[in-house]
Amino acid sequence: MDFSSFLTSLGTSFVIFVILMLLFSWLSGKPGNKVIYYPNRILRGMDPWEGESRTRNPIAWIREALSSTERDVIVMSGVDSAVYFVFLSTVLGIFVLSGIVLLPVLLPVAATDKTGKETNETSKGSFSDLDKLSMGHVKVGSSRLWAFMIATYWVSFVAYYLLWKAYHHVSDLRAAALTSPEVRGEQFAIIVRDIPPPTKDQTRKEQVDTYFKTIYPDTFYRSMVVTDNHEVNKIWEDLEGYKKKLVRAEAIYADSKKTGKPEGIKPTHKTGFLGIFGSKVDSIEFYNEKINELIPKLEAEQKVTLREKQQSSALVFFTSRVTAATAAQSLHAQMVDTWTTMAAPEPRQMIWPNLPKNFYERMIRQYVVYAIVALTIFFYMIPIAFVSAFTTLENLRKFLPFLKSIVDLDALKTVLEAYLPQLALIIFLMFLPKLLLFLSKAEGIPSESHIARAASGKYFYFTVFNVFIGVTLGGTLFDSFKKIQKNPGSAVELLATSLPANATFFLTFVALKFFVGYGLELSRIVPLIIYHLKRKYLCKTEAEVKAAWAPGDLGFTTRVPGDLLVVTIVLCYSVIAPIIIPFGALYFALGWLILRNQVLKVFVPSYESYGRMWPHINTRVVAALLLFQVTMCGFFIIKKFYYAPFLIPLPILSLIFAFVCQKKFYHFFQATALEVACQELKETPNMEQIFRSFIPPSFSTDKAADEDQFEDAVSVVSRSQSFV
Amino acid sequence: MDFSSFLTSLGTSFVIFVILMLLFSWLSGKPGNKVIYYPNRILRGMDPWEGESRTRNPIAWIREALSSTERDVIVMSGVDSAVYFVFLSTVLGIFVLSGIVLLPVLLPVAATDKTGKETNETSKGSFSDLDKLSMGHVKVGSSRLWAFMIATYWVSFVAYYLLWKAYHHVSDLRAAALTSPEVRGEQFAIIVRDIPPPTKDQTRKEQVDTYFKTIYPDTFYRSMVVTDNHEVNKIWEDLEGYKKKLVRAEAIYADSKKTGKPEGIKPTHKTGFLGIFGSKVDSIEFYNEKINELIPKLEAEQKVTLREKQQSSALVFFTSRVTAATAAQSLHAQMVDTWTTMAAPEPRQMIWPNLPKNFYERMIRQYVVYAIVALTIFFYMIPIAFVSAFTTLENLRKFLPFLKSIVDLDALKTVLEAYLPQLALIIFLMFLPKLLLFLSKAEGIPSESHIARAASGKYFYFTVFNVFIGVTLGGTLFDSFKKIQKNPGSAVELLATSLPANATFFLTFVALKFFVGYGLELSRIVPLIIYHLKRKYLCKTEAEVKAAWAPGDLGFTTRVPGDLLVVTIVLCYSVIAPIIIPFGALYFALGWLILRNQVLKVFVPSYESYGRMWPHINTRVVAALLLFQVTMCGFFIIKKFYYAPFLIPLPILSLIFAFVCQKKFYHFFQATALEVACQELKETPNMEQIFRSFIPPSFSTDKAADEDQFEDAVSVVSRSQSFV
């Protein structure tokens, strides 16, 4: 890629961004779109335009985002979102502080070094102006390299300092959220797994109750034995489906009264495959029938499940936060693989089917999943390398000659050359998260947020290995493997040699990500179009319309690894080609601004883990830092700089830093500290309500009369035993 | 070593053993020796000869040892001793079950293989009869090797089965001891370390009290802030020394009245260096003066210490066992490196100076100690190798020609040849334990039993690396290093080649250890002689006599690694030279018998850790098993047996076994399970008494009146503050 195609890429990105911004200003003002641009506010029953002047000031949202406080974010979107902003601002801080020192120092140092064109390392193909500004332009063995070495130290220490402060801050945020005097159900409950088989004269429930009553005579409230809900859930889902369809059919019928004949047309459908085959029936009657059929079936199945499908796992409720916190952390049984306890997640996060999984089964599943992920990481690299080698224009022209005429158009050629590889990469990465979420769930983790963390960790390694290292070594992948096989020590050196050649690729990648990515994010063009289409052609009922604009959450699983990839790229290039730093800073500044808007107005968090994501983010930023330091070591060796060993303390420091962070902070993110749990509550907790909040939806019924029935069903276990 | 010198060695060992046994029968019957042979019973106020017929039946002790139950051992010597016997009987079981199958199968298989003298691998020097019975005698690539492979599997599975059963049993023993309805002080206390600096308007004691009262409002009893007792201890030791000397001087004076003049001779001594220089003084007066001088000094220093030398650590007492158990396991502070808690050890085990050591200081100390130990392990090998190369008779004759005439005596030559290297080795190993205990203490561990465990673990690695591997590769040490340097993979192969050559050395080593070692153990010749000498010439007072026969404890620090070394040796040779198995079995059978006697009658345990030694023993036996399996792999490769890869599952199985043991049992040995702690107590615990039992001896005074004074001193902190 030459300099002009780089500028073209930047320019088009910027133009797209501006267009999207204008679109946003225009569209977000229209009242019909408010469910797309302000769903979080609407769902909280707030005025969508609260605080904004009704005059369509196109930058009002910026002022609002900048003036919002961390408190606002926590109120509107929870601690996890606030922690995500800590991440964005910390990285932004690292880049700004690095840039302030590195840009004015390193650029002149590199540009003024008199070298011939022979050290043309930075970009593939022809020599470009960008190269003059990079470390590749400095003579081999030059004493100017001292400046680059000091820069490496500066970046590292800035990162240590800001990460340390951020960890402290996040820990305080978590502590503040957990000490909150508001009653949160999950703070009073623990999950108990691996319960040994009960004795013959005992039901599972009696066993659990007796066990915990003995240990916690004063604070034990009640237990809820986990049941195998597979059947109940199936019936319940069918029932809910029919209910929705009934409402829909009724809406259509009501509609037809208005538009067509006054008596209306009763909607009909065929009962066979896909509604195409089978006998034609009156939909409303049919659904009513089905519902009436399923309700008693569901109730019967619920009773059977509660009585007969009890599993070796339970939720236990305590009347005290401190007891629940200690119970979650303490060893209960002499055999460690029985009666294992852990803190309960929020009810909405519970993954019920994973609860009864056995101690060793979980362990084996975990190792198997790790093995699969490791294999996938390795084998994904091969297609990625092919794509990145294949999607150069020369190759396209060679292998797909029919494209030749299009490709040879000059304007198009520049655009294509600029975007093709990056686009291929981004599309490629879209298929991964689902797989990783599935794999993480298969490990047996019982909470959504934990699964998101696990998947996000795996996704990070994917992107770093496959995108960063894969693309860098891409063209020469197979040669590289041969070299590394011969001499494993050469891997670092190889990476260091290949890095500069891809500087512009990654510059474009980052720019594309923030201009186009964040532009799309803010303008919400895609959800907007989908919503309007759905509303026009599909949605018949209120509920359907509401589902059509459901905003979803921030999506940490892919967002955080994506950002971390940018961190990795920018850090690794920060000293070699400091020109990348402003792009990185812009990425995180824009991200902060636009996501602040989205978090306050759009996204609705689907869970709250009180910042448990942070230790993972911190570790991975340090890992990126380590990769940067190791690559720099390799780069200085290539530059034949005799003082390269002076860099060795840095990777060691990074490891110590990670270790100390882990020792000082991490345990509090795994467990609730007692000094935090012992704060007084605003009100006496309503234990009955807490207990009820954990009942899975397929068991909870909305009729008040039915509550007694459920109560019955829970304790029917012991009663039926005594009657039989 | 040839066959005759092996037999000589065995014979002399046996003769020594018989002599020592006869000595024991004779000496233990004499009433004057009962404090040497029955101190544990005497200290417990029991009749020394209880249960034994007064007729000096020389094998009465054997009958008694065999008929004693595990319950007896726990009552007389605690759970730790009982766990040690589980270890002895488990290993004995492994050897007996292995021997029953291996001896009748492998010996004929090896002996009847027709090989020439060319495969003379087993013993250095000339061919001997022993070699015929070993795997070395089987032809290269012979299908008879299948028998040896199956034997390897048999030994491994026997070991897994018995170790698993033993771990279960030990876990039950620990649970039974911890559920005991008797009140044990340490179950109500926790150690708190890394307490952050108190605020200005708070004393340390107030800070600790407030903190724990908030978290445990119902069960918090009281706290004891750790103080820097260095000065107090020094004064107290001086005081105690003078008190002892005073009693002695008075005894001498009283004695002189009886024997000499009726008015007696007042004992005198010189006050200068070693009592040789300086002015002569009346001892009784002098000591009385000193004591009267020190008592107020001690009291003043105690007050100052309690008020001003408070450290960042404390003991916290709870009125409930469950709370103490959960408090020891739970995270208390948001910053993990503050307010760290752990279960308190018994008062007699406390290492006070290690308590206030900082979180990171402890960590750094630990790594430094590990590094030192690793270096010592490596560099100890070199002198050991020299010793074992030097102490062959040929070398002695060559380097120390003046010994030639002695060495050439035929009888002496055989004995020397048999014993010299083993003796050198045993003496060499005597210097280690002190160093290792010192190093382990320097890690910052706060309890004696934990230090013993840590030192014992290090000692095990020492013995295995230096004795087993060192001796095996000994003669060819430097050649070996060169080979391994060239090809690291050859280490296993090299070990496998060298093993058979040392079979007889280790046979003799094991035989020497049990015949002479256990003979000395049982007969207690050395303590007996020392006691009688001391009583005759040195002891003047009751206390001094009592100190002279103080029996000490079992000494797990050296005893367990010593036994584990035998386990390693016997396991590694079990298939190569099965003739070693009976010797191993005999070692553990004799050990069980003789130590049963010693534990019931002689040794007094100096601490109780409720079997926390076991996980370490288990891990190390599995490590020995792993070494055995890996060496066997190497040995089969040397034998050019094409089915050698069939052994690969075994080491993997061992790792899985160790992992599962760890997961299933280990945590309960680190912490108290709540189901165990929640058992009811026989009586309401006397918290005041529990609290007092933890007061260090230099603070506790035996005068009843002084107790109030101490109470004052503890709470003087806050009072003095309010007065000032």
TrEMBL record, chains A, B:
Gene Ontology cellular component annotations, sorted alphabetically: plasma membrane
A GO molecular-function annotation: calcium-activated cation channel activity
Protein origin, superkingdom: Eukaryota
Residues in CSC1/OSCA1-like 7TM region domain copies: 365-636
Residue ranges crossing the lipid bilayer per the database entry: 6-27, 82-107, 145-164, 367-390, 419-439, 459-478, 564-595, 616-637, 643-661
Residue intervals of the CSC1/OSCA1-like N-terminal transmembrane domain: 5-165
Record InterPro entries: Csc1-like, CSC1/OSCA1-like_7TM, CSC1/OSCA1-like_cyt, CSC1/OSCA1-like_N
Membrane topology note: Multi-pass membrane protein
Record's subcellular location: Membrane
Principal location listed in the UniProt entry: membrane
Domain CSC1/OSCA1-like cytosolic: 187-354
Xref: Pfam families: PHM7_cyt, RSN1_7TM, RSN1_TM
Alphabetical keyword list: Calcium, Ion channel, Ion transport, Membrane, Transmembrane, Transmembrane helix, Transport
Family to which the UniProt record says this protein belongs: Belongs to the CSC1 (TC 1.A.17) family.
Record protein name field: CSC1-like protein
Protein's organism: Actinidia chinensis var. chinensis
